[in-house]
Amino acid sequence: xxxxxxxxxxxxxFKAIGELPTNTNKYMRRKLIxxxxxxxxxxxxxxxxxxxGILQRCISHGEGQEVLWKCHGSAYGGHFSGERTVAKVLQxxxxxxxxxxxxxxxxxxxxxxxxxGNLPRNNEMPxxxxxxxxLFDVWGIDFMGPFPSSYSNSYILVAVDYVSKWVEAIAIxxxxxxxxxxxxxxxxxxxxxxxxxxxxxxxxxxxxx
Length: 209
Fold this sequence. Notes:
The protein is of the alpha/beta class. Helix content is about 35%, strand content about 20%. The strands form 2 sheets. The protein has a 4-stranded mixed sheet. A 4-stranded mixed sheet has the order 7-6-5-8, with helices on one face. It starts with 8 loop residues before the first helix and ends in a 10-residue tail after the last strand.
């Protein structure tokens, strides 16, 4: 069985013993010396220094195929997309130059991924619309208390804007619907406009009847 020569063999030899390949021209040797600045030799492994400073262990293409399969098609792989599979490989600390191309090819050949990526409409998860809210469109409102009386006040009426979390609150003596209506007119409607929705616990003091 013929063993694969790792793609990084020349760089590893140069970093380990300072040896340059003799079967290449001076331009290729000059390029190798320039590229070697981004690699670190820590016997017996070669590591690539990434742009974010993280070191990735260099592995051969054959080893890369095995790692790709484990990160994509194994029981814990998940059969995710090519980019997500590459992210898992990089998180494991491995690198080889064609990792993105190899991951794309593997995903395109994966039968499980093909089935997961082409679900019939009847089996798709239903899509729900997300309500877009602006500032002060929706308020939550509720009473706090009763508390020990202070200046004849035993309750606190609180309103919170759902988007900005802005709080409006007043201390009051009673918790009835008249107090709520007065609070809304003076503190909410006149300052922030009429909201699209008011959310409460449905207590009788929030029913203007």
